[in-house]
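Model it.
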Amino acid sequence: MEHPLPETQIPQLDKLLHAVEFGALCFLLIRALKGSFTGLSGFRLLAFAVILTTIYGATDEIHQLFVPGRVSSFIDLFFDFLGALAVGFLKR
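Modeled.
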């Protein structure tokens, strides 16, 4: 099986990278939604961006089911959600 990341001494690095990557996506979604939907309150904007980010993470995990050498994981999806939620609260 191929490993997309090099071997490292940092445990669970891939989980951290999931959180950072999807946190960045959530940050960008918040910025885009703020400009497009000016009537959304802070909480609704945060919730919408986190939900959209998590849905995208779910589709990514489903996609990985069909890619040889890749593994789909609910744990990865959970870290996608955590990254989006953390950045959403920081951006708010």
